[in-house]
Amino acid sequence: MQELWLDLQEKYRSGNIKKKEEQLYKKWGKALKLLSADPGYPSLQTHEIEPLSRRYGMKVRQSYLENKTSGAMRMYWVYGPDQKDITIIGLEPHPEDKKNGAYDRISLSDL
After folding, report:
1. Where are the domains of the chain?
2. Less crowded by CB within 10 Å, the N or C end of the chain?
3. CA–CA separation, 74 vs 79, rounded Å?
4. Please, what sign has the CA dihedral across residues 32, 38, 43, 46?
């Protein structure tokens, strides 16, 4: 995730960023600022995703980058590795059908 963030940041600073990448960079940057200040900030709508928590053996949380749009992006994260650390482990569109194993299709970074 860090590699993706740094790539977007470099493209943004150099002016060589595509429109969709720029939108992602700005939304993700805003969400990261809110998350670092208060993981429970209301607009992030942070909550645990139990199927992912079971799969990874630790509480995996989801926070919103955007809402009420088709394929709205979600940021997946865990606490750690150290106290007060937050590690971003995924950035994916919201799965459309939660009932039929949609979170099984979510691919997260190795912890």
Report:
1. 2-105
2. C
3. 17
4. positive
